[in-house]
Design brief:
By secondary structure, the protein is of the alpha+beta class. The protein has two helices and twelve strands, in the order ββββββββββββαα. A hairpin with a 2-residue loop joins strand 4 and strand 5.
Length: 202
């Protein structure tokens, strides 16, 4: 049972904002361009079976917003194999949720999680809805948790490799154009290769 004297509490501030791109809403017939990866995400690592009470509120440092009525919102806990941004919500990976979207200043998840890696996602129903939000995570054992705001390392590597391949392609196009221009001046492939090899060998 919940004992505030013994349970651990972690608090995080975030927001749904058009400027930051986090006011995405959720995918629907009227919001097909929704990018769920931009919604507020938190990374949670659990080392032993743990009880949780997770509160999502439309507030900032404990002060409720003046938005009336409150925005319809929901909170999800998704099990993942490694840290990642969630692109969709397959039911088999959602371990817990606050339920349907409701116009309330506070929604809560009360659940038990087995050891593993999880992502928490806070969402409004409609794209463009803006508000500061506060996430409070109460657990009967200590857990590792942080806001997932940076691109995961594997995606960094993917983007870096993509940029490298693009640079190689551009370099090849430049070399081909140079060869073509030299060929027009009567300089053959063999001569070009000899010059290239001499330059690359130092």
């Amino acid at each position: 049972y919940y004992d505030p004297r013994k349970w651990k509490t972690k608090t995080f501030q975030a927001c749904w904002s058009v400027e930051s791109g986090t006011a995405q809403g959720v995918p629907s017939f009227h919001n097909k361009a929704c990018d769920m990866k931009k919604l507020p995400h938190w990374l949670l690592k659990v080392n032993r079976p743990t009880d949780f009470i997770v509160d999502l509120t439309q507030s900032e440092n404990g002060m409720a917003t003046l938005i009336e009525p409150p925005l319809p919102m929901a909170l999800y806990v998704v099990r993942v194999a490694k840290p990642m941004f969630i692109e969709k919500l397959p039911n088999e990976n959602v371990m817990a949720s606050s339920g349907d979207f409701v116009r309330s200043r506070k929604v809560t998840i009360n659940t038990n999680l087995l050891p593993g890696t999880y992502i928490l996602i806070a969402a409004t129903y409609l794209k463009g809805d803006e508000s500061p939000i506060e996430l409070k995570v109460h657990s009967n054992f200590d857990v590792e948790m942080s806001q997932l705001t940076e691109i995961p390392e594997e995606l960094h590597m993917k983007l870096a490799n993509k940029a490298f391949e693009k640079a190689k392609m551009i370099q090849k196009q430049i070399e081909e154009r140079a060869r073509l221009e030299l060929a027009k001046q009567g300089i053959g492939k063999k001569q070009i290769d000899q010059v290239t090899n001499a330059l690359t060998s130092g």
